[in-house]
Amino acid sequence: MKDVRWGIAGCGKISHDFTNALTFNKSNVVACAARSETSSKRFAETFGIPKHYGGYDGLLEDGEVDVVYIGTIHTTHCELVMKALDKGKHVLCEKPIGMNGREVRKMVALAKEKNLFLMEGMWTRCFPATRKIASLLETGELGEVITCTADLGFSIPFEVKRLYELEMGGGGLLDLGVYPLAWLLLAFGDQELKSVNACASLHESGADMTGVITLRFGKEGVGSASYSSRSETQKELHINCTKGSIRVRGCWSSHTPERVEVRRDEAGEADVFEFPIEKNFPIPMNFGNSEGFVNECRHVEECLRGGKLESNFWSLQETLKSHDIVDEIRKMLGVTYPQDQE
What pLDDT is attached to residue 268? Predict the structure, then answer.
């Protein structure tokens, strides 16, 4: 595939930021769609997109669209992903791609049946800083990973109902906790997951707000992931190995990493690697460091041009593993979504 032609499903804030990155990258965005044609028309005018649709069927039927980015509320993800795949479209879907592991398995099975690319938008995995960390871990030069701690938290008011209402897919774990969880999965790699434990505070609606996840891997690996929708946290990553350590700190947040510290001797100086995010975008972003979306759109286009059916940065197997862990955690916490009853 030489020229990758994008269609955008959903014209809200996150789609705005992703499309802004596509435009900055000079990618080819040919169409957008929203529930309201007024919204899609305004979105198209903002980014100079030639076609816009009211409703999503027109976009999915559009023969000029190769890959669909889905940035709608995540309770709608499974239905839209399935429809897009059924229409022969490659798909990049915002995280979480589904509300539970069952939904994710349906999507993965259809993508494989149709021989189409499918990726959950775990954009952190596409950052150059993350690739540096992955490379360090793959070489084994720092020895075996013993502990990993990661956190992500923001003070989000109760008025942002999509974070706190179960019917809207609310909950800090699905929205924020999956980021530090993904760091744990990267750090421990192929080590066998031995146990999962978690505790969290719950909103009166039943959605989780602040939580701590503890995972045990292999012989002696222990990982801790914490998250909160009620308070700002350190937003750091610490990976401690038998022969050194890796830190992501001193930047805005570890889920959009820009600075990596590597120590091979804890008594010595750290090697510091800087990966600044490009900021000279003509249109402002809605969310912090959304300029980093450019890494994800470049990665997806590289995958499609290379004929790949999944990402090697965030594979479908790892996506399923993450969602299975989240399902297990939610059972512990007593967090149940309407989709769990289907």
Answer: 76
pTM for the model: 0.96
Residue 53 bridge partners (DSSP): 33
- Output the domain CATH number for residue 81: 3.40.50.720
Cβ-Cβ contacts under 8 Å for 234 (sequence gap 6 or more): 151, 249
Among candidate residues 74, 95, 122, the one where a domain is terminated: 122
* Tally of CB atoms within 10 A around 83: 18
Closest CA to 220 of 187, 252, 191: 191
Contact 223, 217 (CB under 8 A): yes
Which amino acid, one-letter code, is at 284? P
Q: 70 and 201: one domain? A: no
Determine the straight-line distance between the first and last CA of the chain, rounded to whole angstroms. Answer: 37
* Per-residue pLDDT, 265: 76
Which residues span the domain enclosing 32?
5-122
Edge-first strand listing for the sheet containing 51-54:
51-54, 28-34, 5-9, 67-70, 90-94, 118-121
pLDDT of residue 204: 96
Q: Which positions of the chain have pLDDT values less than 50?
A: none
Q: What are the residue ranges of helices labelled H in the chain?
A: 13-24, 37-47, 57-61, 77-86, 101-114, 128-139, 172, 178-188, 293-305, 316-333
